[in-house]
Automatic annotation (TrEMBL):
Species this chain originates from: Pelobates cultripes (Western spadefoot toad)
Positions of transmembrane segments: none
The keyword Transmembrane helix is assigned to this record: no
Similarity comment: family membership: Belongs to the HARBI1 family.
Gene Ontology CC: one annotated term: nucleus
Cofactor(s), names only, from the UniProt record: a divalent metal cation
Domain of life: Eukaryota
Function as written in the Swiss-Prot or TrEMBL entry: Transposase-derived protein that may have nuclease activity. Does not have transposase activity.
PANTHER family documented for this protein: NUCLEASE HARBI1-RELATED, PTHR22930
Key words, A-Z: Cytoplasm, Hydrolase, Metal-binding, Nuclease, Nucleus
Residues annotated as domain DDE Tnp4: 148-300
Name this polypeptide is given: Putative nuclease HARBI1
Pfam family, one: DDE_Tnp_4
């Protein structure tokens, strides 16, 4: 005799039939101050996300108690910005841990589907010129289209025998490649590479490298620190400056690169799930990569809405690697171009 199997609703078990706990924390019922302190963002920002992602989060269901897009977004934002385990944030909203996990997954996937809408390198002549003008006004370095650097985000060990994710600090991490403009807006984000890959190698293997070598190399160059090798489209500091001009170039280069340092601090400060101070991302590398990318998208959306969170104070950053300093390159064309910049603009 077949025994019928009942599929149990986790929220129903936790809160009981008829108790519409999923609607308990609604935007209209709380203040902006509460939303910012609990979920990291004000009402207007959450409203925008509901409009942006609502169609992806409103899935057909036979259940009368399906979680609304609004609640799913608040749940995901709470997890991204608190860095705490999902159980505590689920208790705050009033949903089970299983439902909380589904909310984070749903919102993350919906955001990643829209990555090209919010993170992209401009191709139009006017946009490229505005990038150059902005960077030149910042510190006087000409032809700059962006700043590139890497950031490690710690994750749980995917496999005891898989050492590819172990970085130089002995932690499992993803090494993420970013490029940004003068305002800290991310123009590029690759978040899926294992932590054992060094920064320069990561860049060499990236689509960003391909883009500049095939398309944007005639338009200008990126700024990078000593962890990267000098290229015709990648300007690094002079390792051992021997003239006042080279010192001035290095100072301008450092002032420009500071924007990326502040941008990474802003990401870790706003999205505590990335800073590694409370816990590592307890997901597979693939899902952790998507969560990081979703946070990058939200970072750009926040800047579009005027929600800056930049800070000059250093915060916890266990995921940050030691800088790997390379010897000066043998690329004669890249060296010639850098010397021309130095002589023309910093003599």
């Amino acid at each position: 005799m077949a025994i019928p199997i009942t599929v149990l609703d986790c929220d129903l078990l936790l809160y009981g039939r008829g108790h519409r706990i999923l609607d308990r924390c609604r935007l209209d019922d709380v203040t902006d101050e509460y939303l910012v302190s609990t979920y990291g963002f004000p009402r207007s920002f959450i409203d925008y996300l509901v409009e942006l992602l609502g169609s992806s989060l409103s899935r057909p269901t036979q259940r009368s108690r399906a979680i609304s897009p609004e609640t799913q977004i608040m749940a995901a934002l709470g997890f991204y910005t608190s860095g705490s385990f999902q159980t505590r944030m689920g208790d705050t909203i009033g949903i089970s841990q299983a439902s909380m996990s589904r909310c984070v997954t749903n919102v993350t996937e919906a955001l990643v589907e829209r990555v090209s809408q919010f993170i992209h390198f401009p191709r139009e002549e006017g946009s490229i010129q505005r990038l150059k003008d902005g960077f030149y006004s910042l510190a006087g370095v000409p032809g700059v289209l962006g700043i590139v650097d890497c950031m490690h985000v710690t994750i749980k060990a995917p496999n005891a025998e898989d050492m590819s994710y172990v970085n130089q600090r002995g932690l499992h991490s993803l090494n993420c490649l970013f490029a940004c403009d003068t305002q800290g807006v991310l123009l590029w984000a690759e978040t899926h590479k294992p932590g054992s890959i060094q920064d320069n190698t990561l860049l060499s293997q990236s689509e960003l490298c391909c883009l500049f070598e095939t398309e944007l190399h005639k338009e200008g160059w990126l700024i990078a620190d000593h962890a990267f090798l000098l290229r015709p489209w990648l300007m690094t500091p002079v390792q051992i400056p021997g003239s006042s001009s080279e010192y001035r170039y290095n100072m301008a280069h450092s002032a420009t690169h500071t924007v990326m340092e502040r941008t990474q601090r802003a990401l870790r400060l706003r999205f505590r799930c990335l800073d590694g101070s409370k816990a590592t991302l307890q997901y597979s590398p693939e899902k952790a990569s998507q969560i990081i990318l979703a946070c990058c998208i939200l970072h750009n959306i926040a800047l579009q809405h005027g929600l800056d969170i930049w800070t000059d104070s250093g915060g916890p950053g266990l995921e940050q690697e030691e800088e790997c300093v390379h010897m000066e390159p043998v690329d004669s064309e890249a060296y010639r171009m850098r010397q021309e910049i130095i002589l023309t603009h910093f003599s």
